[in-house]
Amino acid sequence: MNITINPGAATDDAAQIDSIVTTMQEDMETLDGAIKRNIPDGVQTTWSDTVRNNWEGYYGSDVPAAMEEMKLSASNLRLAVEQALAYDQEKN
Question: Residue 44: phi, psi to the nearest 5?
Answer without folding.
Answer: -125, 90
